[in-house]
Recover the amino acids of this structure.
């Protein structure tokens, strides 16, 4: 007898074309082959640092909505890790790629980053715990798979090897598997309407992942 498809497996299959389109973005193609311009990577790093603070806030809100102690601990810890990662960007990647504190502070959120941050925080505050988790999942999962794909394609002496090692590494992938396990467990207890809302939130977030990388490659800023 076939086992029922989990929420995460179904969400991945439903959005597989979008994920493949994400891999094919010029940013990710150039990142993989090592030709991504330094200016583009710097812009991306700055936006990612802004994003991680909002992501951490959304995780903290989701943790407060958890219906069991395990979820509370898991997502409170993930919120802390997101903020710690943002700080580490300043001491690690930003230093490595010559981004000064002044440059970071003077660079506002891009339109795509602004949209993504507000989407996550809005869903975390205004929707149920299962829907909030579904909206947060693509950032974990898609990053992990982009990291793995980039590692497979990367040439030796890659200029962005430290980024690749972070997101292709087993520590990050183990964390993503734990998040997927929780999302599946929560979805298994949800009704049909909640499952449909979870799928919609996952797709919206996956689209925003696509937009985030596309925006970074084009160095998009506010038009006025």
């Amino acid at each position: 007898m076939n086992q029922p498809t989990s929420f995460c497996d179904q969400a991945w299959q439903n959005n597989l074309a979008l994920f493949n389109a994400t891999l094919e973005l010029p940013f990710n193609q150039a990142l993989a082959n090592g030709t991504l311009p330094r200016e583009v990577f710097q812009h991306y790093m700055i936006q990612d640092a802004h994003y991680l603070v909002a992501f951490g806030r959304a995780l903290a809100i989701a943790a407060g909505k958890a219906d069991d102690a395990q979820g509370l601990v898991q997502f409170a810890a993930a919120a802390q890790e997101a903020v710690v990662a943002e700080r580490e960007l300043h001491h690690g990647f930003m230093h490595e790629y010559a981004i000064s504190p002044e440059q970071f502070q003077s660079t506002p959120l891009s339109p795509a980053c602004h949209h993504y941050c507000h989407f996550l925080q809005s869903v975390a505050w205004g929707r149920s715990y299962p829907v909030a988790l579904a909206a947060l999942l693509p950032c974990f999962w898609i990053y992990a798979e982009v990291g793995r794909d980039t590692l497979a394609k990367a040439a030796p002496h890659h200029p962005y090897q430290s980024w690749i090692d972070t997101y292709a590494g087993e520590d990050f992938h183990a964390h993503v598997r734990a998040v997927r396990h929780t999302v599946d467990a929560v979805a298994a207890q949800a009704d049909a309407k909640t499952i449909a809302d979870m799928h919609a939130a996952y797709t919206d977030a996956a689209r925003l992942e696509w937009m985030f990388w596309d925006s970074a490659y084009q160095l998009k800023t506010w038009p006025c």
